[in-house]
Amino acid sequence: MRGEVIEIVGRLSSGRTSLLTAWLTDVTRRGGLAALVDADGAFDPQSAVRAGVDLRRLLWVRTGSRRDTALRAVDLLVRCRGLALVAIDLGESPPRLSLAAAFRWRMAAQRAGTTLVILTTRRIAGAGATLAVRTARRALEWSGDPRPTRLARVATDVEVLRGQAPAAAHWWCA
Fold first, then answer.
1. Quick one: which H or E segment has residue 141?
2. How far apart, in Å, are the Cα atoms of 74 and each of 38, 95, 112, 124, 149?
3. Could you give the CA distance from residue 73 to residue 1 in angstroms, rounded to a whole number?
């Protein structure tokens, strides 16, 4: 999916970060380079390593809740050839993004051959996104003896909001 802008939208604990972490794991295991712009300081490198992300192949940009700095960082990173994936996690309060900026990112991603993933609570890229999905938590599975005290898995529903063919999916993530 190189040259694409993909939005993953969903509420807190909906599975959107788990989906991104799985993507980062896949990219770094294949030897690709990835960049993550963390606008809220929510990225947990220890959890990412446990999920299989190779941190030596990940550029982690922390912007300290400064959304404008995060957007400028993406503007630069999406132009870099050699990055298989550029992701921005805008957290719970995403900024407004002009349609012109979204299309500028899309053109830059196509030229650089990278994929841009935007994580947020609501859609901000509009028609500039080539694919938009919504995640929603479906169920929690607990484990532990004699009574369940440990979260084992989370079931997540994924709905395609914008893309080639509208579809829905459901998966469990550990």
1. strand 131-143
2. 10, 13, 13, 14, 40
3. 21
| pLDDT 10s digits, 76-104 | 999 999 999 999 999 887 778 888 888 99
Chain-centre distance for alpha carbon 25 = 12
94-98 contacts at long range (C-beta below 8 A, 24 or more positions apart) = 94/67, 94/120, 94/121, 94/122, 94/124, 95/67, 95/68, 95/71, 95/124, 96/124, 97/71, 97/124, 97/125, 97/128
Helix pair angle (99-112, 67-77), 10° resolution: 30
Q: Which of 145, 72, 147, 81 is nearest to 114 (CA)?
A: 81
Backbone CA torsion sign across 26, 136, 132, 164: positive
- Quick one: CA torsion of 53, 54, 56, 60, rounded to 10 degrees? -10
What average pLDDT values come out for the chain (174 residues) when binned by 10 residues? 85 84 93 94 92 96 88 94 94 83 92 94 87 82 78 76 56 46
Domains of the chain, start order: 5-134 (3.40.50.300)
Q: What is the pLDDT of residues 70-80, one digit of tens each?
A: 999 999 999 99
Mean pLDDT of the chain: 85
